[in-house]
Amino acid sequence: MTDARETATPAPSAPVPLLDPREGIPPVTAGPQALADVVAAFAAGSGPVAVDAERASGYRYGQRAYLVQLRRAGAGTALIDPIACPDLSALGEALADTEWVLHAATQDLPCLFELGMRPTSLFDTELAGRLAGFARVGLGAMVENVLGFVLEKGHSAVDWSTRPLPEPWLRYAALDVELLVDLRDALEAELREQGKLEWALQEFAAIAAAPPPAPRVDPWRRTSGLHKVRRRRQIGIVRELWLARDQAARERDVSPGRVLTDAAIVTAALESPPNVHALAALPGFGHRMGRRQLELWQAAIDRARALPERELPQPAAAYTGPPPPRAWADKDPAAAARLSAARAAVSALAEELNLPQENLITPDTVRRICWAPPTDPNPEVVASTLTSLGARPWQVALVAPLMTTALRARPATSE
């Protein structure tokens, strides 16, 4: 294994702007026959397939895909409109035995699942970059540092639900998959040279095998600024306003934040206005908001005010894991000593291997094993415990010895 503390090999200086796809911008696939042609072409192609998806985050409700881009040797590039072609299961089946190359795979896979596309094997270029020790792992930075090309990233946050999609956006979308396979090959070589390729392959296999994400429990608890709301009745107002906003956003297919901001929800919860007139005076509910909308929000507030005490939400969500680390010293000094020793050891090893600590082992895994350690923390038992908590074999091999030592740490005694 080479010295992983060295910076991953960069591309030569003076990067070259990549302005157009090699074969030009392909037409958007938006019909059954065109989709069948794409399926046939990609089934006949060779090697890995680059896959990307564009969403309309911040504009539309949910995280559905509004454009799917693919590129494969022998097939070229395809741009597919998933609104016109909502079932891409035939394409997914045609590529079932093909390695998919994605950048930040966990971001795109959920919306691809909805279309009937799911890889059996994949290569995540962002995760590969993290494991290889790159400081900047965005697609543009990776393409520039590894391949020496500059991608134009000016359209990353546009409303991809727009129809028809402007030509500059389509060019940008096609370029996003233009060099993904090239980037994959370069990163594979880099990881092999560093002795980390097997680590990456295990990570990729775990992502490909993971089930679709389950719906969040109490998603309203993610309201920004909720920490300012302490009383249960006020928290109930946050919940009712969030649910009313979510329903309205879903019906209108608009991002919830465009219907009502989190800041407005928190303000209304803290002020608990008694009527529409008082509500309209609050920030976020000004004169531009129609009477019907104000009545919708006031009704939600009134529902929360009318709830019996037993139906009000608790201040904190139910949680089965360990308490926040800041409380450990008081609750369990021995656990705090274990955690301190484990964190120091993991940090030192991650620095030595030149990769982020969270990729070496997740902080949650460290906290859980330190809070409730095995009765006999020998290397075999610790390794088994780490595996049960979701650690991959490569992580277990590196971290189990450190954790075995850390779990034997004792709190310092004052004289």
Automatic annotation (TrEMBL):
One of its GO terms (molecular function) is nucleic acid binding. GO terms for biological process: nucleobase-containing compound metabolic process. Pfam families: DNA_pol_A_exo1, DNA_pol_A_exoN, HRDC. Gene3D superfamilies: HRDC domain (1.10.150.80), Ribonuclease H-like superfamily/Ribonuclease H (3.30.420.10). Residues 231-311 form the HRDC domain. PROSITE patterns: HRDC (PS50967). Residues 1-20 are annotated as: Disordered. This is Ribonuclease D. It comes from Actinacidiphila guanduensis.
